[in-house]
Amino acid sequence: MSELKADKLVDGTLAWRAPPPPLVRRIATTISNVWYELRKSRTASIGAVMLVLLFGACIGTPWLATHDPIKQNYRERLQPPSEKHLLGTDRMGRDIYSRLLYGGRRLVTIAVVAVTLSLVVGVPFGVLTGYFGGLADTIGMRIVDGLLAFPGLLLYLLFVTVAQAWKFEGVMLDVVLVGALALAGMPEKARLARGSVLAEKQKEYVEASRAVGDSPARIALSQILPNILSPLIVTATVRLGFVILIVAALSFLGLGTPPPTPDWGSDLSAARDYMETHPLIAAFPGLAICYTVLAFNLFGDGLRDILDPRLAER
Known about the structure:
Layout: E1 5-8, E2 14-17, H1 22-38, H2 42-59, H3 61-64, H4 96-132, H5 134-149, H6 152-165, H7 171-200, H8 204-211, H9 216-224, H10 229-252, H11 264-270, H12 280-307
Helix pairs in contact: 2-4, 2-12, 4-5, 4-7, 4-9, 4-10, 5-7, 6-7, 7-10, 8-9, 10-11, 10-12, 11-12
């Protein structure tokens, strides 16, 4: 039976209230512990604040945007920042501020889904091949080596070019891009997971699990995997910044989603002809890309300092 807590009112009487539910307490405790650890690293704290602002803007885009991001108005083209258009307008009279918000939401969504998919596929693959060893490990690592030998940029170009040749547009083109990014990131996660498993499977808790009769797959996924998550989380966080750059670069080269879809890379490419006369048109998408990549990199570096027990000072 849970204990009641007393709150003293203004008149001196006591009002009894029940404690919060267990789930709420666990969530609050987890958030408190995470914030306590983040405060130990200034780099992680700054990165976390930047990411909170970034994800908050992505989630609140429909309410924060002031204009239709694809609506053209040639009477207001190349306007400077004003009360009506907070960051001005581009060469077609579209609101830059609204395009940045919608383009950022799309870009961050692609990066998060691609990295998550590479983790879901690569980590179990590396854990199982590393734990079982022998022929399974040999075949699995040869597959990973073959994927690593194939240049990542060439893989992206191949997937996107084939998708455009098949007339994929909009969401379908984004799905193809996510698949290419996930496939390119999977070998890195698999090799990292395998290396960590090779060090962990010789420890006593694994021997104890074998002694009580747990199956190899259960030991690998339920016992070893939770103990090797730290380097995987750090790698995934830093990888997000790299994926952002790749997607923006492909759009800059004209291999992303075709106009008029808001996209930081394509907007930056379209602003090249006006950089001397209207530099802000190119500055805002470039700064948005820099901010996003910097936020993920700072947070990833801070997590590495926090989660690495060999560092005496965090």
